[in-house]
Amino acid sequence: MKKIIITVVGKDTVGIIAKVCTYLAENSINILDISQTIVSGYFNMMMIADMGNSGKHFGEVCDELDSIGEGIGVAIKCQKEEIFDSMHRI
Questions:
Q1: Nearest to 46 by CA among 75, 13, 15, 83
Q2: Measuring CA to CA, how many Å separate 23 from each of 31, 39, 82, 83, 86?
Q3: Rounded to 5°, angle at Cα 76 from 36 and 54
Q4: Structure confidence at residue 73 as a pLDDT band (50, 70, 90)
Q5: If DSSP codes are grouped into helix, strand and coil, which group holds residue 73?
Q6: For residues 37 and 29, what is the distance between their CA atoms, to the nearest angstrom?
Q7: CATH of region 3-87
Q8: Do the bridges between strand 42-50 and strand 74-80 make them parallel or antiparallel, or are there none, so unpaired?
């Protein structure tokens, strides 16, 4: 399993979840956990996904998600699980 952490932040608009989830499904990236909230009109989502069955490299997925985010007006960032865990260790 190759877990990645995906965060999406920006002004709330229709279709953010649909765009991100469609991209993941089309690239055989399985969503393991998802949390999203809207606070004062700002959208925030965090996903844990498994890209073990995807034919794409991590960097390529990150670049393509970044482009999708630019197209819909949000910031989409990816991190490998082990990097995320190391950065947030107490």
A1: 75
A2: 11, 25, 23, 23, 27
A3: 95
A4: very high
A5: coil
A6: 22
A7: 3.30.70.260
A8: unpaired
Spell out where the chain has E strands.
Answer: 3-11, 30-39, 42-50, 74-80
Quick: pLDDT tens for 10-61: 999 999 999 999 999 999 999 999 999 999 999 999 999 999 999 999 999 9
Q: What is the pLDDT of residue 83?
A: 66
Residue 79: pLDDT over 90: yes
Instruction: Tell me how far apart the alpha carbons of residues 18 and 68 are, in angstroms, rounded to a whole number.
Output: 11
* pTM for this entry: 0.88
Give the helix/strand (H/E) hosting 69. helix 58-72
